[in-house]
Amino acid sequence: MAKIINLEVFKRFFKSGQVGGFILLTCVVISLIIANTASKDSFANFLEIKLGFGPINYSILAWINDGLMAIFFLLVGLEIKRELIEGELSSVKSAALPVIAALGGMLVPAVIYFLFNKGATSASGWGIPMATDIAFALAIIALLGKSVPTSLKIFLAALAIVDDLGAILVIAIFYTNQIHFEYLAMAGGILILLGLMNYFGVKNLVFYLIPGIFLWYFIHHSGIHATIAGVLLAFTIPTNETDVLSPLEKLEHFLTVPVNYLIMPIFALANTNITFQKEMISGLISPLGLGIIVGLFVGKTIGVTFFSWVAVKLKWADLPTGAGWKHVLGLGMLAGIGFTMSIFIALLSFSDALHISEAKFAILTASILSGLVGFIFLKSLKSKD
């Protein structure tokens, strides 16, 4: 019974991610249009409007990147925990392939970027090509229908979730500037409280979400990026391995639609505002641009495929049911769609406006390339189902 429910949970998540991907794409197009018309200055001024009071008076853009994205990371954290407890990551055998593939898909692109940018001012962006955009990747693979086995779609979802966890750790460890330990200690106190409530069986989500708001505030002021609070909160939400709907699953179901249909599109609308200039074309062959494009398109493909091959050859894991190595190769290409998360890491990597614009354009180029080539390649294959 639990397995049936797990499949239903995946189907709902997949369907929402599919439609959300199309909404996300629409907002990307709208954002690009605004950035290249007379409306760009008005839109930029709108994003700088301050909202809030006292110590939480931030611009609309800051609320989107630090506030709404914390909710996105809360959902990611819930998905990761559920997969660890009862899903594709719940046993060593089932978790081995997506975990190892994701590891390759993070390490190889980071190394490629580093080799292109070693010693340059853009070297700090090595985390940009490590990310996979789960919404876009699932939207593309959904278009393939029966051209690929269902197991490959589940594999991509699990890989992207592990990839998100890796990106979260990278942000927390490497993209944190100055730590304010007094705020970090208060955040730690809130986290201990949440953990104790989980331990003693508190099921009411209100008792987790209200302290979660304070956790976000203290994490934000500690110097660690506020979005990490979403993941930490998620890992304290109770769940189970039975067919009884847990608080974690209830919250995940509640958040899936607003995150995919509203939060991610708003983030894309606010942050894909690339004003095209002819100098950007040359930026694609700069160390920064090449590091991102080669890292995402080539690095992800090589990393996911080679690390998967090693895992299978060493008998640490099995290929997804009905899938062959060409399917894994095509999936590696789709993993190169780094869009939303890559842009997010780019914003943390650089303070220079030129670097940010070049990075966004390179990410957009690499993601389109990965999506198109991956789709065409997988469409040409026949499922073994």
UniProtKB/TrEMBL annotation:
> Could you list the residue ranges that cross the membrane?
21-38, 58-76, 96-116, 128-145, 154-175, 181-202, 214-237, 257-276, 288-309, 329-349, 361-378
**Pfam families in UniProt:** Na_H_antiport_1
Q: Where in the cell is it found?
A: Cell inner membrane; Cell membrane
User: What membrane topology does this protein have?
Assistant: Multi-pass membrane protein
- Asked whether the keyword Transport is assigned, the reply is yes
Question: What's in the keyword line of the UniProt record?
Answer: Antiport, Cell membrane, Ion transport, Membrane, Sodium, Sodium transport, Transmembrane, Transmembrane helix, Transport
Q: InterPro entries in the record, alphabetically?
A: Na/H_antiporter_dom_sf (IPR023171), NhaA (IPR004670)
Reaction equation(s) it catalyzes: Na(+)(in) + 2 H(+)(out) = Na(+)(out) + 2 H(+)(in)
Biological role: Na(+)/H(+) antiporter that extrudes sodium in exchange for external protons.
NCBIfam families associated with the record: NhaA, PRK09560.1, PRK09561.1
Sequence similarity: Belongs to the NhaA Na(+)/H(+) (TC 2.A.33) antiporter family.
Name listed for the protein in its UniProt record: Na(+)/H(+) antiporter NhaA
Organism of origin is Pedobacter fastidiosus
**Gene that this sequence comes from:** nhaA
